[in-house]
Design brief:
- It is built from 16 helices and seven strands.
- By secondary structure, it is an alpha/beta fold.
- It has two domains: 108 residues, Transcription Elongation Factor S-II, Chain A, CATH 1.20.930; 265 residues, 3-Layer(aba) Sandwich (Rossmann fold).
- The chain has a seven-stranded mixed β-sheet with strand order 1-7-6-5-2-3-4.
- The N and C termini lie far apart (41 Å).
- Bound molecules: 6-O-phosphono-beta-D-fructofuranose (F6P).
Length: 405
């Protein structure tokens, strides 16, 4: 009999929205040599070192961070302390998982909990001096302050002068490959050595057709990383609003620091401010006004930091997305949550894995983890034949669309 995977035991909240998930194995992180294992055993130790170097945390915070590293690499899952504001919530999310080694629970779950525990270790939710201090704040600020960002913004601004077809392709390309720049990925990958090589699926034309068909509605963009990824996302947002393809936009961000550089409201404000002080100042000014008059709403929800896939969207969030004419999901983590963090055969139709989403959905994603769907068989054969770690190298990307009319 097949061994039950931990997240198969969990009751689905709403069977009508839950697709019949085929039997692809849930990705775990306990296999030495696997990509998820390297995230816990190679990437996280470096990340935690950088966090402790970037801010003068005191002995108690440092001790808690070291304990987290030990627990998440060699220990078992222990719940948040009872006074944590989300203690009960996590108890439920981790039902039947507590006490298991970290590597034996779903990778998505364990990684998400790792980031929540890091906030606990650094006092983000505890009353005291470190309350509300983003442990990744110094990295995010340094990225936005980098003088090369000025050149990138000048280039992004110039895209708006291109003829329509070229402009559209360039806007999508910038938003897609901007996703390669996430700070977590760069801890173990030298960005200089990673050249974007291939768009494995390009549903870009279908995406623009869908936007034209539904012009005048509300387009949602579920953001991923702050800084260099959020800037092109904001330029795309501005274009959708000024062109009338969207009458309104919702930009969904994380409610708290997560996966190193994930964007929160503070990061949106910093990015819009950066745009306003650059050659793309007119774009920044328009976005500022759009936020002010409600044409662009920045939204968040606790579920964006939940350790769960999007087929378990809470009803109120599903209802919100159902009101969008199209939802654009950015990045690797959103992709994992959309299709389910499973070792799908890569030729599994994208629509089969993502069709449960409440609105038409487009994924703009650089491949940085093992999960992938919707690839042509010949491409998979060729990529497998290279011997390259193509699923995780950040050199490949996809633009995939599903549920379009
Ligand atoms: O910022 P992104 O594109 O969501 O990528 C984050 C990715 O980084 C990792 O945490 C480690 O590579 C992946 O597990 C995750 O999907």
């Amino acid at each position: 009999m097949k061994k039950q995977q931990p997240d198969e035991k969990r009751q689905q909240p709403d069977e009508r929205r839950t697709p019949a998930m085929p039997d692809a194995p849930v990705i775990l992180s306990g296999d030495p040599g696997s990509f998820p294992w390297s995230v816990f055993h190679e990437r996280h130790p470096k990340l935690l070192r950088q966090v402790l170097d970037a801010l003068p945390y005191g002995p108690a915070e440092r001790r808690h961070v070291e304990q987290l590293l030990a627990e998440s690499t060699t220990g078992v899952l222990t719940p948040l302390p009872p006074d944590a504001p989300d203690h009960e919530q996590w108890l439920r999310w981790g039902e039947r998982l507590w006490g298991l080694p970290w590597g034996e629970v779903p990778f998505l779950w364990a990684e998400s909990y790792f980031y929540r525990r890091l906030l606990h270790a650094t006092g983000y939710f505890t009353s005291g001096a470190w309350h509300g201090v983003d442990p990744f704040g110094p990295f995010k600020s340094a990225e936005l302050a980098n003088p090369t960002v000025d050149d990138e913004l000048a280039t992004l601004s110039a895209l708006l002068d291109l003829p329509e077809a070229k402009r559209r392709a360039a806007l999508l390309t910038s938003a897609l490959w901007g996703n390669r720049a996430d700070l977590g990925f760069r801890i173990t990958n030298d960005p200089g050595s990673v050249t974007a090589t291939g768009l494995l699926v390009d549903d870009g034309p279908l995406l623009w057709r869908e936007l034209e068909r539904t012009a005048g509605g509300r387009v949602d963009l579920v953001a991923d990383n702050a800084g260099r990824e959020l800037l092109p996302d904001l330029v795309l947002t501005d274009h959708l609003l000024t062109s009338g393809l969207a009458a309104e936009m919702a930009l969904w961000v994380k409610p708290q620091p997560y996966y190193v550089s994930d964007a929160m409201m503070a990061d949106v404000l910093a990015a819009v401010g950066r745009l306003r002080r650059s050659k793309a100042g007119a774009i920044g000014d328009r976005l500022w006004r759009a936020i002010g008059d409600g044409t662009l709403t920045v939204r968040t929800h606790a579920f964006f930091c939940a350790p769960l896939p999007y087929h378990e969207l809470p009803a109120e969030l599903a209802a919100e997305f159902a009101g969008a004419t199209l939802t654009i999901l950015k990045g690797d983590l959103n992709y994992r949550r959309l299709v389910g963090d499973r070792l799908w055969p890569p030729t599994t139709p994208f629509a089969e894995a993502a069709g449960h989403f409440p609105s038409p959905v487009a994924a703009l994603r650089t491949l940085k983890s093992d999960v992938v769907t919707g690839l042509p068989e010949a491409a998979v054969r060729e990529l497998d034949g290279t011997g390259e770690a193509w699923r995780t190298s950040g050199r490949y990307g996809v633009v995939q669309v599903c549920n379009a009319g």
